[in-house]
Amino acid sequence: MKKLYVVGLGPGGREYMTGEARAALEDSELLCGYTVYIDLIRADYPDKEILTTPMTQEIERCRMAVEAAEGGKTVAMVCSGDAGVYGMAGLIYEVAGENSPVEIVIVPGITAALSGAAVLGAPLVHDFAVISLSDLLTPWETIEKRLRAAGEADFSLCLYNPSSKKRADYLKRACDILLESRNPENACGWVKNIGREGQEYKVMTLAELREEQVDMFTTVFIGNSSTKFLGGKLVTPRGYERKMK
Amino acid sequence: MKKLYVVGLGPGGREYMTGEARAALEDSELLCGYTVYIDLIRADYPDKEILTTPMTQEIERCRMAVEAAEGGKTVAMVCSGDAGVYGMAGLIYEVAGENSPVEIVIVPGITAALSGAAVLGAPLVHDFAVISLSDLLTPWETIEKRLRAAGEADFSLCLYNPSSKKRADYLKRACDILLESRNPENACGWVKNIGREGQEYKVMTLAELREEQVDMFTTVFIGNSSTKFLGGKLVTPRGYERKMK
Questions:
Q1: Chain A, 157-186: which have a CB under 8 Å from a chain B CB?
Q2: For chain A, does the N or the C end have fewer beta carbons within 10 angstroms?
């Protein structure tokens, strides 16, 4: 059967890839992806055929990958982070359709919720929700509803795509919604350029997060109401500390 | 500085570990962890000192790891999946305390939400929430509140610890809460023994999930209201399909 891997590369350099991801790339004849992600791995696979498309060309990129696999090639579509978290996994299934002759294999990777949480300490170690603030494909009303629900039910939160040039005030709007149910002192943080050159992080209160200017390479974390600052990091208790005392 | 790695091994065999995780184990003199997880890697590190504790001894396990690091050893505390998702990352910070001389380094791994989603297709490719059904450390009222909120706000859901001997009906109770806001036809699935021998998966409706008997080695997925069955897998649309038509 023709095989199409959809591979999560993790946050940056090759040290964050799993063995399974490396094996999938090794096994493939054609590597497809957004130019920036392909550039992360291109040097490791000088003999592979490469096919890149710019951002916003996701449908075309997936069509080319599926067609190449249908034509008999073993193909890897690469994604940053995890293929199954705001990645290409879903669109590949949709483009391939119900009766595709291609075997689709999703290879998970370390998504920014996990890699960013590791930099900040342990903000997501209890129940959490992941929300993208991008309204390119999702109505803002749906995003607001999810923010409000996660705020009220005291989830820790991880926010993807917290800002862009066209959406400079979206993080502020998200914080305002969370402040309806959360204390302004609620512990928060962000991580920028996770796993790449120029990695930075900062911890702060929810009131302070509201005033932060973040960019599209930043992932934002909001603890639950019990999350605390500990040694400059964020730690969400799981309930063990009741036993410890 | 004395170093204490908290390392997520991923779902099972060594092919799911990242390069960063392998380097952390290599760099450590002492490997600590729950017996079952240490057994997954023991054979690869025949010359390392090993310290295992049984389940439910989490506080003692973390104390021993922190003390060994304070004593000058480079230590790795290993966790299944990701150290920062229901793993030991938080407790290690709590045990080490505010002014610890130990440098704590969290090394992320592939948690069951990601590895299980990859087996099922792409159920979590849009906004999602992760909830543990274990009420050992969390009041059931909190779990119910989060289930209800995630159900109403149309998150995809991943449920950890869906069942145990003492909690045989918890998944049914969770499904009943979700059925307050979701259609009985809502697409769902589960994966058992992810990345290990005997891996199995099944897709089904929410009404059918309510009748499933799952065990503690199973991770449960509930799609959002748009998630569909496609080629025997679960696929949550992201909005691209509007562009495709």
A1: none
A2: C
User: Helices A58-70 and A89-96 sit at what angle, rounded to 10 degrees?
Assistant: 60
* pLDDT tens sequence across A52-98: 987 778 899 999 999 999 999 999 999 999 999 999 999 999 999 99
Q: Is residue B117 a contact partner of residue A111, using CB atoms and an 8 Å limit?
A: no
Q: Decide if A235 and B154 are in contact by the 8 Å CB cutoff.
A: no
Distance CA A148, CA A159 (A): 13
Instruction: Answer whether A139 touches B (CB < 8 Å).
Output: no
The string of pLDDT tens digits covering residues A23-52 is 999 999 999 999 888 988 999 999 999 999
Beta-carbon count within 10 A of B110 CB: 35
The answer for residues whose C-beta is within 8 angstroms of residue B62's C-beta and 6 or more apart is B77, B88, B91, B92, B94, B95
The distance from CA B209 to its chain's CA centroid, rounded to whole angstroms, is 20
Q: How many helices (H) and strands (E) does chain A have?
A: 9, 13
Binned at pLDDT 50, 70 and 90, residue A165 comes out as: confident
Chain B residues within an 8 Å CB radius of A122? 83-84, 89-90, 93, 106
Q: How far is B210 from B204, CA to CA, in rounded Å?
A: 10
CA A219 to chain centre: 8
